Amino acid sequence: MATKTQELKLDIERTGTVSAILTQPDNARACYVLAHGAGADMRHAFMEKVAAGLGERGIATFRFNFLYMEKKHGRPDQPAVAHAAIRAAVAEAARLCPGVKLIAGGKSFGGRMTSQAQSKSPLPGVKGLAFLGFPLHADGKPSAERAEHLTGIAIPMLFLQGTRDKLADLDILKPVIARLGSKATLHEVEGGDHSFAVLKKSGRSNDEALTEVLDALAAWIDQIA
Length: 225
Hints:
The structure is a single chain. By secondary structure, the chain is α/β, with parallel strands linked by helices. Helices cover 33% and strands 26% of the residues. It has one domain: 3-Layer(aba) Sandwich (Rossmann fold), CATH 3.40.50.1820. The protein has helices at residues 45-56, 67-70, 79-96, 109-120, 170-180, 206-223, and strands spanning 3-12, 16-25, 30-35, 59-64, 101-107, 126-132, 157-162, 184-189. The chain has an eight-stranded mixed sheet, with helices on both faces. The radius of gyration is 16 Å and the shape is globular.
């Protein structure tokens, strides 16, 4: 499947301008607004692999940097600043990919900021949220506090979680997802860590685990309205 990649600039209202990348296969049936994690930007190898893999599956991705990453500041943006970036990215993705199904979310911090933004005011046109490792709590500090805002979200949500993820104890996450009811789906990646990397003794490679993630994500995107 032929795929084109565009390097873009994204203007964030009253904040500044950041870099963005649209990866768009021919006749894309959906576009995933893909926000990066706290420690690596939109060009990180994980983000590149997700964009390429979804492109092969007929799904476009719109990646962008948060302002702190663009300016090479160490500390992540305050939530309001991150939310503004996500809203700008969703609007631009909708403009560049008219008529296709729009999904939002991302890796760890990016996914959580997207769900916070959605809970405060629905992201226009977004049909579902997909989390590539939802960061439920800090390493070694199990808690469900970061998930409280999810009850205010009305659209479908997909949680792709590694069973070895130290930022999401499944014994805590599963009851959270159960309380969310039919709008929430959990896909467990056996042996995966927070980035879905698996141990050698598991008998499969990191690329094979990521293939599972992308297959599950593409199938879920096709299922939602």
